[in-house]
Amino acid sequence: xxxxxxxxxxxxxxxxxxxxxxxxxxxxxxxxxxxxxxxxxxxxxxxxxxxxxxxxxxxxxxxxxxxxxxxxxxxxxxxxxxxxxxxxxxxxxxxxxxxxxxxxxxxxxxxxxxxxxxxxxxxxxxxxxxxxxxxxxxxxxxxxxxxxxxxxxxxxxxxxxxxxxxxxxxxxxxxxxxxxxxxxxxxxxxxxxxxxxxxxxxxxxxxxxxxxxxxxxxxxxxxxxxxxxxxxxxxxxxxxxxxxxxxxxxxxxxxxxxxxxxxxxxxxxxxxxxxxxxxxxxxxxxxxxxxxxxxxxxxxxxxxxxxxxxxxxxxxxxxxxxxxxxxxxxxxxxxxxxxxxxxxxxxxxxxxxxxxxxxxxxxxxxxxxxxxxxxxxxxxxxxxxxxxxxxxxxxxxxxxxxxxxxxxxxxxxxxxxxxxxxxxxxxxxxxxxxxxxxxxxxxxxxxxxxxxxxxxxxxxxxxxxxxxxxxxxxxxxxxxxxxxxxxxxxx
Amino acid sequence: xxxxxxxxxxxxxxxxxxxxxxxxxxxxxxxxxxxxxxxxxxxxxxxxxxxxxxxxxxxxxxxxxxxxxxxxxxxxxxxxxxxxxxxxxxxxxxxxxxxxxxxxxxxxxxxxxxxxxxxxxxxxxxxxxxxxxxxxxxxxxxxxxxxxxxxxxxxxxxxxxxxxxxxxxxxx
Lengths: 491, 172
What we know:
CATH architecture of chain B: 3-Layer(aba) Sandwich
Strand order of the largest sheet of chain A: 2-1-5-4-3
Strand content of chain A: 25-35%
Number of strands of chain A: 17
Helix content of chain A: 40-55%
Number of helices of chain B: 8
Strand order of the largest sheet of chain B: 2-1-3-4-5
Radius of gyration of chain B: 17 Å
Strand content of chain B: 5-15%
Shape of chain B: globular
Largest interface: A-B, 31 and 29 residues
Oligomer: heterodimer
Shape of chain A: elongated
Largest sheet of chain A: 5 strands, antiparallel
């Protein structure tokens, strides 16, 4: 305190004070110049001269920018006109003719009576590489078309970029779960929490609520900002808005569903035509038999009628099961259990026909959201087709293998036989309208129903077959799509 | 009419009921009938003895109607055999392309399932330029007219269709 008192006393002495100011004027790490109303530089510090070169008897624009006339946006003029400080960003030319980027703070120096502005003092600081990087970083952080937030250990948002603020509001200081999801507690499977624990990058897909209450689907990645080497100080969350993508995905699934409906209607018409043809034929033959009093003929016609009535019944039955429920009822089930059920159901039938029916279940397979009844129908259709194909084939030692396994994020069911196989002609048609190679034995709805159920799960069905060698049918479900549907049906 | 002059018809269809129905109708109209359940068997039958006409289904397993027809066109004497198409797939994706190709390039007549015995016989007799009974004649005329109209309607623009509708409405 004593020292301060002493200094004040000392500084009160004007000579000391002006010495200090003069020292400041020279030592300040900025370039300082004093400019009059006519743009003449009347004084400048050594830094200024070191940077911009000789200034004596020169106009400011000649020194700062090596121009012959005043600049378009002259800050000095503004200072004189408005009497307030002005900050501007400019590019000039230094004493060796190199471009120099600087920020200028200009402020007025009033005359002794304090009424008019006598001079403008200009402090210019050259913008270094670091400054520029910093500026670019700010722009990048704010303008990048992703939501970026920095989150502290307490899950409060420390920083947020422009895209985030525009969509979720200016919520710095709030909990991330509160802002993203309007929750009061942490989300399940929080990727930021995982990053805080292991310091690694984690990804997740979530649905949040925007500031206007709109749903926002986003894919989020979290990465660590380390403190020293071991602990995570903050987590950066970078999220991409995938709402439009999600809507598109939804539309694709929907249009696949509608496509299946259209084909079904066309197929149904054809099936009915065939039945009508059979009924027409039966009726005709019965009436011929009656006219001729030919009992054998009456019997033949009557059998045709019976057979086609029977077909109508099974068509209606199959069609009802085909049209049942547009959305699959998804529940988490073990895919291996579904396969075992089918083995139990068919092992006797297969054994009686001398076919070896077996399963290969990947024991690491995880449970998946599936419509058990639907998948049961699919596998039943494929296995009964495989058994038929074996019976139609010419070689002995037939086998049917049902496999279930995981490959590149996809859950795959496979039914493989070494039966008669399909030629190209039939391969093209098996999934189209009501196609049957079993004459009167099938309604042609089996594979169509299978495909429909698979499509409703967001999956696809593929066939690989060679005439005489056997067929391999694969039902492929991308796990991500299953999860999307699962979430949708739960909401 | 004795047995030797009977016309031979080859009926190709994968459905047994359809084959039996058409066969019964043809025998009743005094034709001789052979049947085949797919294109391959049909080809064997053609090799054995040339039929006077082939009644052909389009969509069949193994060898489809269109494929069978292409086989026929390869041999000159086979390509002359008249063909009538009997199909349930005239208007759907499975048969439309095949039917268009066949009606453009070769056999012009097709019947859509379900067919009536009279129409079927009349159409066949028409192709073979045989004498038809009064009843068959009427049926055949109706069928031909219906077919012609269907073709016209299928390729007509909306103005023509409007005019056509007006004419038909006036009649009623």
